Amino acid sequence: LKVSITPYRNKKEKIAGCIIVMKDMTEIKRIEKMRTDFIANVSHELRTPLTSIRGFVETLIDGAYQDPTLAKRFLKIIEKEVGRLCRLTDNMLDLSRIETNQLKLNIKDVSAEEIIREVMIIFENRLKEKDLTYYEKFQENLPKVKADPDWLRQIFVNLMDNAVKYTPSGGKVWIEAESKGDVVEFRVCDTGAGIPEEDLPRIFERFYRVDKTRSAGSGGSGLGLAIVKHLVKAFGGDIWVESKVNQGSKFIFTLKKA
Ligand code: ADP
């Protein structure tokens, strides 16, 4: 709280009272902290791949380039890290466009079933590699929903990416869809690592991760869920999560019926 007191005088120059101004600084402090946290987070996320790239480039220059097998291995690592940097900057740009309403949304009546079918083609190999079982539990004659098809695809990609990433081999990943009143409810579920109760309220914050060390190696940007949440909100829907450690997670969101 910021307080300032100014006395005021009457015609005889005697103090007749004072003006007290009180300003609640909590919100200003909160925004300031968010800003500095954001810069610290971005710098950290950029630094990790950059440090790795520098290390491998230096080793190559120091002579490793003369060994073709070794050189190729190092260049592959550099390529992967560059990919990570590109994903991170793409995600940051998307998020800032969504947050500042600069994104041109093309909202129309879309069939989520069709979109999910397209998305699952991308995941076929990864599901097989990790020996994960995938299935769908869709209500019959599922109504179309109001959404931008490209960004709805992104929502399912981000949620499925996490489900696959955080579920150990042999587990299950599935999508449920059900009509409820004037919305359709979608649930992206897995039998994976789950999220501790104390982390649940912060899971949709940008750069928030449950296990900083585990996620750092997994190639994620920590922005996936923040993007998903903003998109669902922009479509007029709602999103939340139900999860139990070592049992699995359900990311549930609603979209308005067409
Ligand atoms: P990341 O790129 O780290 O996956 P996200 O924003 O997509 O970033 O997710 C934030 C964090 O939420 C993750 O780092 C992870 O700790 C947790 N998380 C997200 N989805 C799941 C899931 N399906 N199972 C377990 N943990 C999850």
Automatic annotation (TrEMBL):
Name this protein carries in UniProt? histidine kinase
- Kindly list the places in or outside the cell where this protein is found, as annotated in its UniProt entry: Membrane
Name the species this protein comes from. Fervidicola ferrireducens
Where in the numbering of this chain does the Histidine kinase domain appear?
41-258
User: Span within the entire protein?
Assistant: 317 to 574 of 574
Superkingdom to which the source organism belongs:
Bacteria
